[in-house]
Design brief:
Layout (H helix, E strand, L loop, with lengths): L10 H18 L3 H7 L4 H29 L1 H20 L6 H32 L5 H30 L2 H19 L8 H8 L3 H13 L1 H25 L4 H17 L1 H11 L2 H17 L6 H17 L3 H8 L6 H30 L1 H22 L7
Length: about 400
Amino acid sequence: MVEDFRLRSVAAAAYGPAALFGLSEGAVLPVIALSAIGRGASTPTAALIAALLGVGSLAANIPAGVLATRVGERRSMLLAAAVMVAGVLTCLVDLGRGPWSLVLYGCGVLLIGAASAVYSLARQSYLTEIVPPHLRARALSTLGGSMRVGVFLGPFAGAAAMQAAGLAGAYYVSLAAIVAAAALVVRVPDLEVTADDRVAASAVTTRGMLRQRWRVYATLGAGVLLLSAIRQTRQTVVPLWAAHIGLSPTTSSIIYGVAGAVDALTFYPAGKVMDRYGRRWVAVPATLVLGVSFVVMPFAGGAVALMLAAMVMGFGNGIGSGIVMTLGADVSPRVGRPTHLGIWNELADIGSGVGPLILSAVTALAGLGAGIVASGLVGFAAAGALWRWIPRPRRA
C-alpha cells in the first residue's frame, strides 16, 4: 500500500547523491572567478566565465528531458556524473595565463553547468515516479533541501582542502564528492517501464509537448519564472547592500552564511504543509516573504539590521524548497514526464537569468536601493501568479 511508503526508503537513491552532488558544486562555486583571474582574466571576463554555469544549464535542460525519456533516469544521472567529472578535470588543466587557458577553463565550467541540469532533471523525474502523490511535496522539498545542505557545506570542505593543496584543493573535493554520488547511483534500481510505455515515450517530442501543454507553461510556468527570478537575485543583493553600507567582506560573508543556514534548515516542514493543505499554503507565503525581505533591505543601515533582513530572506526561500519541482511534477504527464520537466526547468532557468538583469537595469537607472525594491516587486508578482494558477487540490 502507498500508505506504507517511507521517504527513508529512497534516501540512498535520491537524497544521498543529491547532497553529494550539491557538495561537489558548492566546493567549486566560490573559486570559479578566482581561478579565471589566476589564468589572466579581467574581472568582467571572470564574471562572464562564472555565468557559463547558467548558460550550460540553459542549454542542457531540454536535451536532458529527451535523454531521460530515451535512456531512463538512472543512466542519465550516471552520464551527468561522468560529464561533471570531465568538467572538473578540464578546470584543473592550467595552461598558464592566456586566452587559450581561459577558453579551456570556460569549457570546463560549461560542462559543470550542463551536468547539473541533466542530474537535477533525472533525479526529480525518478523521485516523482517512485513516490506516491500524497508524499510528493515532502519528497521533493527534502530533495531540494539535501542539495542545499551540500551546496552550503561545499565551500567549507573546499576551503579546508585549499589549505593543503591550494586552489586545486576545491576541485579535488568536487571530484571526490561526484565520484561518491555516482557510486550510490550505480546501486539504484532502474524504474520499471512496460513495453507500451517505452513505445509511447519514444514518440514524445519537445515540440509536441509544447503544443499540448502551452497553457500550463504560459500561466503557472510564468509564476515559476518570476519565483526563480527573485530567488536568483537574492544571492546578489546581500553582498551588494553590505558593500553599499560599508560592511567588510568578512561581515558580509558571515551574514550570507547565516542566511544560508536558515535557508537549509527550513525545507522539511514546508513539504509537509504542501502535502497536507495544498501547494498554495507554501508557494504564496514563500514569495511574499521574499518580496518583503527585499523591500525592507534598503532600510538596513548596519550589520544587525541587514542580518535580520537576510535571515527573513533565507526563511522565505527555505520554506519554498522544492516548490518548483513539486509544481512541475504535479502538472506533468505520465508519459513523457522528463521531456515536460526539461521545458519546466528551462522556464525556471530563464527566470534565474532575468532576475539579476532586472536588478542591474533598475540600479543603473535609479540606484541600488530602487533596484532591490523593484526585485521585491517581482516576488509580489510571483505570489499573485502562483495564487491564481496553482491547481486547486481535489476534494474527496
